[in-house]
Design brief:
heterodimer, B: mainly alpha, 3-stranded antiparallel sheet, 10 helices
Chain lengths: ~150, ~260
């Protein structure tokens, strides 16, 4: 039960906050929140089943990439408007902080492991965006080719 | 006579296109979108050859009318003070679509650009509310504690207010990130020392999440994806620098606090 509550609340609210800070136009705030919700649902589902944060970040970023593309297509907007508020909650700010606090306590081995998970999580967010973007690019060029065959 | 008119027209078009590109870049669009917008505007106005090279710090555009008599115009525009405003990006995106598909004079386009430039962000209290929401929910995700969450919301609002006040003095972004996270850390530790709050680390993380360089990371990946290597690497470096600055700001205050505590 608490899992579903946290999925719903944590999905909608942070992307609402970032939408306000980045000045997403009023009519697009709700679609941006939906993108954030879907990415968070994917993230939480992976955490719930396997505790693998890198995979969670990767899938969350993939979902943001795909959903933002389709939202942008449907609403005829720039896809940046949906991607930025959706990605921000996935950035590993907490691990960044823990790395720093371990460094201050001079526990270097813990700092190293925390730093490596920060970098890996940031890298998997990047990879998720990269892969969803590439797949969408291939799909659009394939679609164009098929259309030109029929004409 | 017609020659000077043509030259005037060419100048107006390139000024308009580069201005539109600069506005997109300042407000957080990707490089490929900026280059595409400039190219489309110039081609729609009947210029035959357009080459654009855009980076996050500057735009170079060169147009050629394609006739023997016509000259080549080049414009360099420096981009400073990036500040994300997606409403402006969305408006500029639809502006470029309308401009290229309908008859629109460059002069009228320039007026429209000024209109877009004067769009104000959301009112301060709304943005403060947004910052408070972000800080509170990231704190709640770690601490699961109502008092900590409320404190994080208040401290997040305060540090956002502080950052919007400090950005008036145009300090560079490294110092800005450092000072804001130091401010948040100081107040989190102050709240912790009153004894009401248990997890000062969760409060600091919540406040840091407001200023995290997610925009730079996202845009750098999208730039790399479209083959704009220089911009991608530059934005990646920006993200690293901001992250280090934030960690340093929080770290300095934490260290000073424990040193002060051992003195007392």
């Amino acid at each position: 039960m608490s899992f579903f509550v946290s999925v719903i609340v944590m999905g909608f609210i942070p992307s609402l906050g970032f939408s306000i800070l980045f000045h997403v136009p009023k009519r697009l705030i709700f679609p941006a929140m939906i993108v954030g919700f879907c990415s968070n649902a994917a993230y939480q589902a992976v955490i719930y089943t396997s505790e693998n944060r890198m995979m969670a970040c990767f899938l969350g970023a993939c979902v943001v990439g795909f959903f933002a593309y389709f939202m942008a297509r449907g609403l005829r907007e720039a896809s940046t408007v949906f991607i930025l508020p959706g990605i921000m909650p996935l950035v590993p700010g907490s691990y960044m902080y823990y790395t720093m606090s371990y460094l201050i306590e001079r526990s270097y081995s813990q700092a190293a492991s925390s730093l490596s998970s920060t970098l890996l999580m940031a890298g998997s967010v990047a990879l998720g965006l990269l892969i969803s973007g590439s797949i969408l690019k291939i799909c659009t060029s394939l679609k164009r080719k098929v259309q030109s065959l029929y004409e | 006579m017609t020659d000077t008119i043509r030259k005037q027209y060419q100048k107006q078009v390139i000024t308009l296109a580069v201005q539109a590109g600069k506005m997109m870049m300042t407000n957080g669009a990707e490089v490929y979108r900026v280059e595409e917008t400039i190219e489309r505007i110039c081609l729609a106005c009947g210029l035959k050859e357009v080459e654009v090279f855009a980076t996050p710090t500057g735009i170079i555009a060169s147009v050629d009318s394609g006739e023997d008599a016509g000259g080549v115009y080049t414009k360099v525009k420096r981009v400073r003070n990036t500040r994300v405003d997606l409403a402006k990006v969305s408006e500029l995106n639809s502006f470029s679509r309308i401009f290229t598909t309908t008859e629109y004079s460059p002069k009228k386009g320039m007026d429209k650009l000024q209109e877009i430039d004067s769009i104000k962000p959301y009112k301060l209290w709304k943005r403060l509310l947004g910052a408070g929401i972000i800080a509170a929910f990231f704190c709640w995700a770690i601490a699961h504690n109502a008092v900590d969450t409320a404190a994080a919301g208040a401290i997040g609002m305060m540090s956002y207010l502080f950052s919007s006040w400090i950005s008036k003095y145009s300090i560079n972004y490294f110092m800005n990130g450092m000072i804001c996270s130091a401010f948040a850390t100081f107040f989190a530790l102050l709240a912790y020392s009153t004894g009401l709050v248990y997890h000062y680390d969760a409060i600091i993380i919540g406040s840091i999440m407001i200023f995290v360089p997610g925009v730079a990371i996202t845009n750098s990946i999208r730039d790399l994806l479209y083959g704009d290597m220089i911009s991608g690497v530059a934005r990646m470096a920006e993200a690293c620098v901001v992250a280090v600055a934030q960690a340093a700001g929080a770290g300095i205050i934490l260290k000073l606090w424990t040193m002060g505590g051992s003195l007392l």
